[in-house]
# Entry
Amino acid sequence: MEAPHNSPAAETAPKPAGTDPASAPKLAAPDSAAAPAPTASAEHGGSAGGAGAVPEAVTVALTVTSPEQMQELGRRLARVLAPGDLVMLTGELGAGKTTLTRGLGEGLGVRGAVTSPTFVIARVHPSLSGGPALVHVDAYRLGGGLDEMEDLDLDVSLPESVVVVEWGDGKVEELSDDRLRVLIDRATGDTDDERREVTLVGIGARWAGLREALG
# Structure
């Protein structure tokens, strides 16, 4: 389900700041489209407090059965993304990370075909409609983590962009206290099964409404 790699070309970026939860728009419930509906969801602990306390993480689980559904899920998620959002994609090769990002790009209305950024490390897709740009990063080869991310030199303001990072676990968490983790699990072994179990984990106050937005 992954797009083919492009030819090598280096591009690099400054550190994106996280969205201020107070200023980020609330997650608006999307239209009920062809995207898969949540099959299970749970909220996990937050700071002790009374009513109104924001959970530290909100988890939504979905089942996707085709590349088309994965791309539609990306379009659906794009409706709730805002400038400064950090989205981290985790899944083995062929799981569907780039397919999901292609849907995000379509939903955000950005320029250029979204393909795997493996060889260029990062690619910027400017908006065609005055919205946020999409910054698509492959952190697989960024052994230095945050230091190397700060050395990237992308011609875009990251706090005003949506940043999507593949293979970012353990490397880019410091970029923002608020982030959306997308974990994609596929059947292992030599199989043509297109079924994917997708787990969305919204971390921080920015994502407190994730469950309702996808409900």
Summary: The longest strand covers residues 55-64.
